User: Which sequence fits this backbone?
């Protein structure tokens, strides 16, 4: 039976954190068991906002790869590759940009949000405005049927489908050249950072997947809690505490969670006690992840082989797609070009 094809990617902008683990990677690992999964480290996307500070993009690609492998992504089950290693990503991005109306891109809510929130970066570039078109190209190049995303990416997925409809209208000649990808909405649990805001590398508040137990505890120990609970004897409200939000994601001991909830509300336990219990659960969860990472770190040749093999497999699929795109647009397909 043909497996349903899935595509997703992550930007190469540094180490991944527990928000990535809970919001995406845990689901990706499950999907690879019964889906045809293509997972890309999207370095072109990283350059769209980090072009002025790109020296470490290559290192970041390896960091992301190590994080993926450590949490259980398997190159035998999933196609894992770097976006720029498959040149058809750039080709299809250019092809789709021919028909992508500027109005669609300016209305993109995430574009407006990023412009407002990342004022320390120059985002007034063609590439940044057009990044949803590259995202569409990433997905459509593999004719992915499903794309696992959170609720905040729904607008991008609808834009991808609109681009497909427009492409098929202009170039399909009554048939479907590119399929409409479907959104595979995944639960996105709230994983706050150490300052209570959404965990983000940009905010400097992250708990990283690769972080040592000592470093993790040093961050958790000083993490903010319910601001109304100033003294050990003060009663607290877990619903106002970011530490409790992390418990709800990673602490699977429901009995202990009930005890923590009651202890906080009655001042039966202190915030440090609560943090110690959370740290114990995270340390236990991360131990096999860190062991896998250590094995891969010792063998850089294996990492190179994984990326090379993934790029070859991805490019075979991408070539098939582009062999349909070229003639549909009235161009000479690569296979028919006179050399």
Assistant:
């Amino acid at each position: 039976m043909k497996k349903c094809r899935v595509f997703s990617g992550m930007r190469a902008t540094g180490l991944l954190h527990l928000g990535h683990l809970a919001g995406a990677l845990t689901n990706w690992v499950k999907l690879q068991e019964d889906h045809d999964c293509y997972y890309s480290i999207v370095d072109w996307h990283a350059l769209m906002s980090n072009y002025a500070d790109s020296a470490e993009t290559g290192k970041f690609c390896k960091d992301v790869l190590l994080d993926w492998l450590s949490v259980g992504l398997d190159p035998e089950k999933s196609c894992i590759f770097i976006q720029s290693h498959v040149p058809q990503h750039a080709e299809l991005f250019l092809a789709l940009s021919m028909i992508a109306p500027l109005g669609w891109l300016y209305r993109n809510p995430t574009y407006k949000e990023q412009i407002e929130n990342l004022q320390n970066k120059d985002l007034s570039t063609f590439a940044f405005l057009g990044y949803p078109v590259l995202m569409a190209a990433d997905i459509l190049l593999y004719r992915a049927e499903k794309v696992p995303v959170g609720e905040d990416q729904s607008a991008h997925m609808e834009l991808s489908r609109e681009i497909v409809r427009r492409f098929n209208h202009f170039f399909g000649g009554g048939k479907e050249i590119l399929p409409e990808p479907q959104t595979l909405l995944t639960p996105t649990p709230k994983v706050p950072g150490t300052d209570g805001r959404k965990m983000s590398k940009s905010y400097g508040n992250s708990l990283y997947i690769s972080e040592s137990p000592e470093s993790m505890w040093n961050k958790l120990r000083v993490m903010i809690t319910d601001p109304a609970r100033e003294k050990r004897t003060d009663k607290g409200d877990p619903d106002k505490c970011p530490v409790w939000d992390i418990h709800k994601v990673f602490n699977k001991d429901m009995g202990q969670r009930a005890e923590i909830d009651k202890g906080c509300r009655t001042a039966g336990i202190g915030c440090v006690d609560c943090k110690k219990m959370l740290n114990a659960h995270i340390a236990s969860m991360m131990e096999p992840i860190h062991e896998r990472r250590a094995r891969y770190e010792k063998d850089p040749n294996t990492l190179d082989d994984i990326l090379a093999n993934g790029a070859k497999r991805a490019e075979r699929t991408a070539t098939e797609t582009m062999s349909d795109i070229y003639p549909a647009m009235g161009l000479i397909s690569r296979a028919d070009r006179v050399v």
Remarks:
- Residues 300-328 form the longest helix (29 residues).
- The CA atoms of residues 4 and 35 lie 5 Å apart.
- The chain has two domains: 5-191+300-336, 211-294.
- The beta strands are 5-11, 36-42, 78-82, 146-149, 182-185.
